[in-house]
Amino acid sequence: MVAPSSTPVLSITALETDIGGSRILRGFDLKVDAGEVVALMGRNGVGKTTTLRSITGGLPVRAGNITLAGQPIHRLSADARARLGIGYVPQGRDIFPLLTVEENLRVGLVVHGIKGKAAASALGRVYDLFPVLKEMLSRKGGVLSGGQQQQLAIGRALLTNPKLLILDEPTEGIQPSIIDQIGDTLKKLKVSTRTEEEQTSEGRKEAAEIMEAVRKLREEHALAILLVEQYVDFCREVADRFYAMDRGTITASGAIAALTDEVVATHLQV
Protein backbone atom coordinates (compact mmCIF):
# COMPACT_ATOMS: atom_id res chain seq x y z
CA MET A 1 0.00 0.00 0.00
CA VAL A 2 1.27 3.45 -0.91
CA ALA A 3 1.52 5.89 2.00
CA PRO A 4 -1.64 8.01 1.94
CA SER A 5 -1.46 11.72 1.21
CA SER A 6 -3.21 14.29 3.37
CA THR A 7 -6.03 14.50 0.81
CA PRO A 8 -7.92 11.27 0.02
CA VAL A 9 -8.65 10.53 -3.62
CA LEU A 10 -12.26 9.83 -2.68
CA SER A 11 -13.92 11.29 0.39
CA ILE A 12 -17.58 10.82 1.32
CA THR A 13 -19.05 12.67 4.28
CA ALA A 14 -22.56 12.27 5.77
CA LEU A 15 -23.93 10.90 2.51
CA GLU A 16 -27.71 10.65 2.10
CA THR A 17 -29.51 9.59 -1.08
CA ASP A 18 -33.20 9.01 -1.78
CA ILE A 19 -34.85 6.94 -4.50
CA GLY A 20 -38.51 7.51 -5.25
CA GLY A 21 -39.03 9.33 -1.99
CA SER A 22 -37.47 6.56 0.09
CA ARG A 23 -34.25 7.12 2.04
CA ILE A 24 -31.68 4.59 0.85
CA LEU A 25 -28.40 5.99 2.17
CA ARG A 26 -28.65 7.25 5.73
CA GLY A 27 -25.52 9.29 6.30
CA PHE A 28 -22.06 7.77 6.42
CA ASP A 29 -18.40 8.59 5.85
CA LEU A 30 -15.97 6.70 3.60
CA LYS A 31 -12.59 7.46 2.09
CA VAL A 32 -10.10 5.90 -0.31
CA ASP A 33 -6.47 7.01 -0.51
CA ALA A 34 -4.10 6.76 -3.46
CA GLY A 35 -2.51 3.34 -3.75
CA GLU A 36 -5.25 1.79 -1.64
CA VAL A 37 -7.92 -0.82 -2.32
CA VAL A 38 -11.03 -0.36 -0.20
CA ALA A 39 -13.78 -3.00 -0.19
CA LEU A 40 -17.39 -1.92 0.25
CA MET A 41 -19.30 -5.01 1.34
CA GLY A 42 -22.80 -5.99 2.33
CA ARG A 43 -25.77 -8.20 1.63
CA ASN A 44 -27.94 -7.60 -1.42
CA GLY A 45 -30.15 -4.55 -1.13
CA VAL A 46 -28.24 -2.69 1.59
CA GLY A 47 -27.25 0.31 -0.57
CA LYS A 48 -23.96 -0.57 -2.24
CA THR A 49 -25.12 0.13 -5.79
CA THR A 50 -26.87 3.32 -4.66
CA THR A 51 -23.56 4.43 -3.16
CA LEU A 52 -21.78 3.87 -6.45
CA ARG A 53 -24.48 5.70 -8.40
CA SER A 54 -24.21 8.59 -5.97
CA ILE A 55 -20.44 8.74 -6.52
CA THR A 56 -20.57 8.49 -10.31
CA GLY A 57 -23.51 10.86 -10.81
CA GLY A 58 -26.25 8.39 -11.60
CA LEU A 59 -28.33 9.59 -8.65
CA PRO A 60 -28.67 13.02 -7.03
CA VAL A 61 -27.34 13.34 -3.50
CA ARG A 62 -29.84 14.57 -0.91
CA ALA A 63 -27.22 15.58 1.66
CA GLY A 64 -23.54 15.21 2.38
CA ASN A 65 -20.39 15.77 0.38
CA ILE A 66 -18.36 13.78 -2.14
CA THR A 67 -14.90 14.97 -3.15
CA LEU A 68 -12.42 13.64 -5.69
CA ALA A 69 -8.83 14.61 -4.87
CA GLY A 70 -10.21 17.41 -2.73
CA GLN A 71 -12.64 18.79 -5.33
CA PRO A 72 -16.37 18.63 -4.58
CA ILE A 73 -18.13 16.59 -7.25
CA HIS A 74 -21.58 15.77 -5.82
CA ARG A 75 -23.24 18.56 -7.83
CA LEU A 76 -21.46 17.76 -11.10
CA SER A 77 -22.86 15.76 -14.02
CA ALA A 78 -21.82 12.14 -14.52
CA ASP A 79 -19.68 12.96 -17.58
CA ALA A 80 -17.92 15.78 -15.72
CA ARG A 81 -17.06 13.38 -12.90
CA ALA A 82 -15.68 10.87 -15.40
CA ARG A 83 -13.48 13.55 -16.99
CA LEU A 84 -12.13 14.51 -13.57
CA GLY A 85 -10.84 10.99 -13.08
CA ILE A 86 -13.47 8.38 -12.18
CA GLY A 87 -13.24 5.07 -14.00
CA TYR A 88 -16.27 2.84 -13.46
CA VAL A 89 -16.68 -0.84 -14.27
CA PRO A 90 -20.34 -1.65 -13.62
CA GLN A 91 -21.80 -4.96 -12.60
CA GLY A 92 -22.46 -6.78 -15.85
CA ARG A 93 -19.40 -5.15 -17.51
CA ASP A 94 -21.27 -3.33 -20.33
CA ILE A 95 -18.85 -4.29 -23.07
CA PHE A 96 -19.99 -4.25 -26.71
CA PRO A 97 -20.59 -7.93 -27.54
CA LEU A 98 -20.55 -7.51 -31.34
CA LEU A 99 -17.32 -5.51 -31.39
CA THR A 100 -13.88 -7.09 -31.17
CA VAL A 101 -11.65 -6.68 -28.16
CA GLU A 102 -9.60 -4.12 -30.07
CA GLU A 103 -12.72 -2.20 -31.14
CA ASN A 104 -14.05 -2.19 -27.57
CA LEU A 105 -10.80 -0.65 -26.38
CA ARG A 106 -10.57 1.87 -29.21
CA VAL A 107 -14.12 3.05 -28.57
CA GLY A 108 -12.93 4.08 -25.12
CA LEU A 109 -10.02 5.98 -26.64
CA VAL A 110 -12.20 7.77 -29.19
CA VAL A 111 -14.83 8.78 -26.63
CA HIS A 112 -12.17 10.45 -24.50
CA GLY A 113 -10.21 11.92 -27.41
CA ILE A 114 -7.02 9.98 -26.68
CA LYS A 115 -4.78 9.72 -29.76
CA GLY A 116 -1.26 9.04 -30.98
CA LYS A 117 1.45 8.25 -28.45
CA ALA A 118 -0.95 8.71 -25.54
CA ALA A 119 -3.27 6.09 -27.01
CA ALA A 120 -0.40 3.67 -27.66
CA SER A 121 0.87 4.13 -24.11
CA ALA A 122 -2.59 3.59 -22.63
CA LEU A 123 -3.11 0.41 -24.64
CA GLY A 124 0.34 -0.85 -23.69
CA ARG A 125 -0.49 -0.44 -20.03
CA VAL A 126 -3.70 -2.44 -20.48
CA TYR A 127 -1.89 -5.24 -22.33
CA ASP A 128 0.75 -5.42 -19.59
CA LEU A 129 -1.96 -5.87 -16.99
CA PHE A 130 -4.09 -8.25 -19.06
CA PRO A 131 -1.90 -10.11 -21.59
CA VAL A 132 -4.87 -12.27 -22.63
CA LEU A 133 -6.50 -9.21 -24.25
CA LYS A 134 -3.57 -8.73 -26.61
CA GLU A 135 -3.92 -12.36 -27.66
CA MET A 136 -7.64 -11.90 -28.40
CA LEU A 137 -7.78 -8.53 -30.17
CA SER A 138 -9.79 -9.89 -33.10
CA ARG A 139 -12.23 -11.89 -30.98
CA LYS A 140 -15.76 -10.56 -30.45
CA GLY A 141 -16.52 -9.37 -26.93
CA GLY A 142 -19.62 -11.52 -26.76
CA VAL A 143 -17.69 -14.79 -27.10
CA LEU A 144 -15.22 -14.09 -24.30
CA SER A 145 -15.54 -15.93 -21.01
CA GLY A 146 -16.85 -14.07 -17.98
CA GLY A 147 -13.35 -13.46 -16.66
CA GLN A 148 -12.07 -12.26 -20.03
CA GLN A 149 -15.01 -9.87 -20.35
CA GLN A 150 -14.23 -8.51 -16.91
CA GLN A 151 -10.60 -7.94 -17.87
CA LEU A 152 -11.74 -6.13 -21.01
CA ALA A 153 -14.13 -3.92 -19.03
CA ILE A 154 -11.42 -3.02 -16.50
CA GLY A 155 -8.92 -2.42 -19.28
CA ARG A 156 -11.29 -0.07 -21.07
CA ALA A 157 -11.86 1.91 -17.86
CA LEU A 158 -8.11 2.24 -17.34
CA LEU A 159 -7.47 3.82 -20.74
CA THR A 160 -8.29 7.27 -19.35
CA ASN A 161 -5.76 6.88 -16.51
CA PRO A 162 -8.35 7.57 -13.78
CA LYS A 163 -7.57 8.74 -10.27
CA LEU A 164 -10.26 6.42 -8.87
CA LEU A 165 -11.27 3.05 -10.27
CA ILE A 166 -14.63 1.68 -9.12
CA LEU A 167 -15.21 -2.05 -9.60
CA ASP A 168 -18.74 -3.35 -9.03
CA GLU A 169 -18.71 -7.11 -8.30
CA PRO A 170 -15.65 -7.89 -10.47
CA THR A 171 -15.60 -11.59 -9.58
CA GLU A 172 -19.26 -12.15 -10.43
CA GLY A 173 -19.63 -15.08 -12.81
CA ILE A 174 -16.05 -16.28 -12.70
CA GLN A 175 -15.57 -17.85 -9.28
CA PRO A 176 -15.51 -21.63 -8.79
CA SER A 177 -18.17 -21.23 -6.10
CA ILE A 178 -20.65 -20.16 -8.77
CA ILE A 179 -19.51 -22.54 -11.46
CA ASP A 180 -23.09 -23.19 -12.56
CA GLN A 181 -23.34 -19.57 -13.68
CA ILE A 182 -20.08 -19.91 -15.59
CA GLY A 183 -21.41 -23.00 -17.28
CA ASP A 184 -24.70 -21.31 -18.20
CA THR A 185 -22.84 -18.36 -19.68
CA LEU A 186 -20.59 -20.60 -21.73
CA LYS A 187 -23.61 -22.51 -23.03
CA LYS A 188 -25.33 -19.30 -24.09
CA LEU A 189 -22.23 -18.09 -25.89
CA LYS A 190 -21.65 -21.50 -27.49
CA VAL A 191 -17.89 -21.24 -27.23
CA SER A 192 -17.03 -24.41 -25.37
CA THR A 193 -18.10 -27.88 -24.29
CA ARG A 194 -15.52 -28.19 -21.53
CA THR A 195 -16.15 -30.39 -18.51
CA GLU A 196 -17.17 -28.90 -15.17
CA GLU A 197 -13.70 -29.67 -13.78
CA GLU A 198 -12.07 -27.70 -16.62
CA GLN A 199 -14.52 -24.82 -16.15
CA THR A 200 -13.74 -24.72 -12.43
CA SER A 201 -10.01 -24.55 -13.16
CA GLU A 202 -10.56 -21.78 -15.70
CA GLY A 203 -12.71 -19.81 -13.26
CA ARG A 204 -10.00 -20.03 -10.63
CA LYS A 205 -7.33 -18.93 -13.14
CA GLU A 206 -9.34 -15.92 -14.29
CA ALA A 207 -10.04 -14.84 -10.71
CA ALA A 208 -6.31 -15.03 -9.98
CA GLU A 209 -5.50 -12.93 -13.05
CA ILE A 210 -7.90 -10.17 -11.98
CA MET A 211 -6.61 -10.34 -8.43
CA GLU A 212 -3.03 -9.89 -9.64
CA ALA A 213 -4.04 -6.96 -11.85
CA VAL A 214 -5.67 -5.20 -8.89
CA ARG A 215 -2.48 -5.64 -6.89
CA LYS A 216 -0.36 -4.20 -9.70
CA LEU A 217 -2.65 -1.21 -10.10
CA ARG A 218 -2.42 -0.46 -6.41
CA GLU A 219 1.32 -0.89 -6.07
CA GLU A 220 2.69 0.38 -9.38
CA HIS A 221 0.28 3.15 -10.27
CA ALA A 222 -0.85 4.43 -6.85
CA LEU A 223 -4.41 4.17 -8.11
CA ALA A 224 -7.27 4.43 -5.63
CA ILE A 225 -9.65 1.49 -6.03
CA LEU A 226 -13.13 1.15 -4.55
CA LEU A 227 -14.19 -2.46 -4.77
CA VAL A 228 -17.81 -3.50 -4.25
CA GLU A 229 -17.66 -7.21 -3.66
CA GLN A 230 -19.44 -10.00 -1.77
CA TYR A 231 -16.73 -12.63 -2.23
CA VAL A 232 -14.97 -12.36 1.15
CA ASP A 233 -11.81 -14.27 0.26
CA PHE A 234 -11.19 -11.99 -2.74
CA CYS A 235 -11.51 -8.92 -0.52
CA ARG A 236 -9.15 -10.40 2.05
CA GLU A 237 -6.58 -11.02 -0.68
CA VAL A 238 -6.58 -7.62 -2.40
CA ALA A 239 -8.07 -4.97 -0.11
CA ASP A 240 -6.32 -2.81 2.46
CA ARG A 241 -9.46 -1.75 4.32
CA PHE A 242 -13.15 -2.60 4.31
CA TYR A 243 -16.52 -1.03 5.03
CA ALA A 244 -19.57 -3.22 5.76
CA MET A 245 -23.01 -1.77 4.94
CA ASP A 246 -26.47 -2.54 6.22
CA ARG A 247 -29.70 -0.57 5.65
CA GLY A 248 -27.94 2.33 4.00
CA THR A 249 -25.24 2.98 6.55
CA ILE A 250 -21.82 1.69 7.56
CA THR A 251 -22.01 -0.86 10.36
CA ALA A 252 -18.36 -1.96 10.54
CA SER A 253 -15.05 -0.84 9.07
CA GLY A 254 -11.34 -1.18 9.56
CA ALA A 255 -8.14 -2.71 8.25
CA ILE A 256 -8.72 -5.84 6.20
CA ALA A 257 -7.14 -7.90 8.99
CA ALA A 258 -10.17 -6.95 11.10
CA LEU A 259 -12.51 -8.68 8.63
CA THR A 260 -12.77 -11.73 10.84
CA ASP A 261 -15.20 -14.61 10.51
CA GLU A 262 -17.18 -13.07 13.36
CA VAL A 263 -17.49 -9.76 11.53
CA VAL A 264 -18.54 -11.60 8.38
CA ALA A 265 -21.19 -13.58 10.25
CA THR A 266 -22.56 -10.49 11.99
CA HIS A 267 -22.56 -7.97 9.14
CA LEU A 268 -22.35 -9.80 5.83
CA GLN A 269 -24.03 -13.18 5.91
CA VAL A 270 -27.71 -13.60 5.11
From TrEMBL:
* Origin superkingdom: Bacteria
* Family under the similarity heading: Belongs to the ABC transporter superfamily.
UniProt keyword list: Amino-acid transport, ATP-binding, Nucleotide-binding, Transport
This chain belongs to which protein, by name? Answer: ATP-binding cassette domain-containing protein
- Which Pfam families does the UniProt entry name for this protein? ABC_tran (PF00005)
ABC transporter domain span: 10-270
Q: Single GO molecular-function term? A: branched-chain amino acid transmembrane transporter activity
Q: Which PANTHER family match?
A: HIGH-AFFINITY BRANCHED-CHAIN AMINO ACID TRANSPORT ATP-BINDING PROTEIN, HIGH-AFFINITY BRANCHED-CHAIN AMINO ACID TRANSPORT ATP-BINDING PROTEIN LIVF
Q: Taxonomically, what lineage is the organism? A: Bacteria, Pseudomonadati, Verrucomicrobiota, Opitutia, Opitutales
Q: Name one GO biological process term.
A: L-amino acid transport
